[in-house]
Structure formats: C-alpha cells, structure tokens
Amino acid sequence: MKKISLTGIKPTGTPHLGNYLGAIRPALELAKDYDTVYFIADYHALTTVHDGKEMAENIHKVAATWLACGLDPEKGLFYKQSDIPEIFELSWALSCFTPKGFMNRAHAYKAKVEANRANGEDLDTNVNMGLYCYPCLMDADILMFNADVVPVGKDQKQHVEFARDVAIRFNKQMGKDVFVVPEPLIQETTDVIPGLDGRKMSKSYDNTIELFLDEKARKKKVNKIVTNSLPLEAAKDPDTCNVFNLFKLFATPEETAALAETYRAGGMGWGYAKGELQRVLERTFGEAREKYNDLMAHPDRIDEILHAGAEKARPIAREHMDKVREVLGYGKSF
Ligand code: ADP
Ligand code: TRP
C-alpha cells in the first residue's frame, strides 16, 4: 500500500509563487510515489473572507491552479473541505483532546495578538474564534484521511506538529490506533520564498507574484523586486539577491551557474537579471496559464470536478468518522 500525502490551500486570494513553490509543486511531485489527498481549505478561509462572491471566486482560482499545474483529479482525492461535513464533526471531537495552550501558541493567532499589542489595541481585537481554533480544523483535515506526510511551507510546520501530537494523545487515551501520526514535509530549498520586498512572499504583505499573470503584468511585478543600488559595472552577489533567489528555483543547474557567473563578473544591470527571471517564469507557467484561464472561463467545469471529488472522499470520511464515534461511545451515525 502506498503512503498518503495530503495538503490544503486556503482560498484567500490569487495563488502566488510562494504557494506554488512551498506547497503545490512539492505536493505534485509526491504524486509519483504517494496516494494523494489535495483539497481547498475553504472553511479555513472563512476566518478572514466574509464575502460570498469573493469566496466563490477564490475557490475557483485555487482549484483551477491545482488543475492547471498538473493535478489529475482522477487519481487520488481532490475536493473542497466544505463538501465534507464529517471533517467538522471530527474537528469538534479533536478539540476535546487538544490542550488550550496549543491554540495560545499557534503562530497565526499569536501574530495577531502581538500586532494588537504593538498597536496598543485590546489583545482580542479582530480575533474571531475561527482564527483561534484554526489548528483544530487543520488537525481534522489531516487526521481524517490518514495522511502520512503533509507537504507545506515552513510557516505551517507547527500546525502539522499539533496534528501529530493530537493523534498520539487520542490514540493513547482511547487505547486504539485510530489515527495515523502524520509528518510535515518541508523542502529546505523552498521553505520561505521571498516576495518583492524580500520578506516572505505572502498575500498579507502585498508582495506577491501571482502564478498566471500575463507577461506584461508579470513584468511590472518583476520590475518591482527590490535589489541593491550597485552600479552596472560592480560585481554582484547572487546569493543575497531576491531576483537570483527566485530565478534559481525555476532554472536548470546550468542556467543558474551561468547567471551567478554573470552577477560576479560585473557589468550586469538589474534589467538583465529581471529579464532572465521573467523568461524562466514564462517558460514554467505559459502553457499552464492557458489551461487556468480556460477553466476560470468555465467555473461550472471546476464545480463538477470538485463535486465528483467530494463524492469519492465522503464515504472514506464517513467510515473513518464512524470508527472515531464508536471508540468514543457514540456508535455509528445513521
Ligand atoms: P499566504 O501567506 O499568502 O496567505 P497561505 O498561508 O495561503 O499563503 O499558504 C498556502 C501554502 O503555501 C502553505 O503551505 C504555505 O506554507 C505555502 N506558502 C505560502 N507562502 C509561502 C512562501 N513565501 N514560501 C514558501 N511557502 C509558502
Ligand atoms: N493552514 C494552511 C495554510 O494556511 C491550509 C491548510 C488547511 C492545510 N488545512 C490543511 C495545509 C491541512 C495542510 C494540511 O496554508
């Protein structure tokens, strides 16, 4: 039996290079050796998105991104979280095995509290219970489908570790191995992708390069990548340069070595380096962009794929949830 790789992406905006390199690309590479469970974490997005039209559009964008990047919906499971109500049932059960301290330490919640503190606000300002309990829902996502590995960016490592811990606690307390203990899978080379300003690329920092921009719009973004102000003639250090650090993630080893050499030799302007980045990005995403645009023009096709995926996933979730219910003394659902 193959092991299971599972990951989810929150539909909170348009997917960007950080999402692609940190989550989508590694997840799709794992599809060769693992059974896959890849989904749209749409109820997670509800912690911040409270506009139905925007939510629906974001869901289509994330689904179309997975599909355009090569996910085969016939293989493995591909669904949206909100179509599997058993996940929310499990989330409650798991929350009753989760120490409150875990939630206090969860990084997304903590970051919000710290921001409130820095601004002299009440510490609970703009903190809804969804944000606070966010990791419990993520535990249910992961444990429901017996994930062995969870490919994510570094920022999600803590959440996956919570899922590990809760699985171990539950199994131990109930005296039965109901849950597989998952492991986070973080690629060192793509753990934190820099954005336009050199900070972590993130929708929250408004420093993203979206995957399927047309060439003109992407050029505008690439031109905004912050570089140092060394003159054309100066030798430059590729390793500390945001442009190079993105370039090398899409280039062949030969292209990477050649551009590094050009940096060090001096006589290279930033326009050249940015042009090289633009070239490898277009090579990577040009064809997929057509597929993405075509899907986005036909959202009903996306919905059909997601519904078929939920139909496949739900019986598996129901069966697992029934095992949990039986162990807890509720008996099977009917
Ligand atoms: P954002 O920070 O833009 O809101 P999400 O939190 O929705 O992105 O992230 C979705 C997935 O993409 C997660 O697995 C996350 O770890 C990964 N990811 C997001 N940004 C980056 C980044 N800059 N570098 C590496 N991985 C990232
Ligand atoms: N919390 C993840 C993020 O912000 C999204 C997510 C939800 C997820 N459930 C998951 C990732 C389960 C991996 C496994 O990016």
Structural class: mainly alpha
| Structure annotation, total helices | 13
How many structural domains does the protein architecture include? 2
Q: Report the sheet-strand fraction.
A: 5-15%
Order of helices and strands: EHEHHEHHHHEHEHHHHH
Strand count, sense and barrel status of the largest sheet are: 3 strands, parallel
Low-confidence stretches: none
Percentage of residues in helical conformation: 40-55%
**What is the CATH level 1 assignment of the largest domain?**
Alpha Beta
Structure explained in plain terms:
The chain has helices spanning 17-30, 42-45, 52-68, 86-95, 100-105, 107-118, 129-144, 157-174, 215-223, 242-247, 253-265, 270-297, 299-328, and strands at residues 4-9, 35-40, 77-80, 149-151, 183-185. With 334 residues, the chain is mainly alpha-helical. It folds into 2 domains: 4-193 and 299-328, HUPs (Rossmann fold, 3-Layer(aba) Sandwich); 212-292, Tyrosyl-Transfer RNA Synthetase (Orthogonal Bundle). The strands form 2 sheets. It has a 3-stranded parallel β-sheet with strand order 1-2-3. Helix 8 links the parallel strand 4 (149-151) and strand 5. Helix 3 crosses helix 12, helix 4 crosses helix 7 (129-144) and helix 7 packs across helix 8 (157-174). The relative contact order is 0.14. Residues 6-8, 10, 41, 44, 138, 141-142, 150, 152, 156, 159 line the site of tryptophan (TRP). Tryptophan is lined by residues 6-8, 10, 41, 44, 138, 141-142, 150, 152, 156, 159.
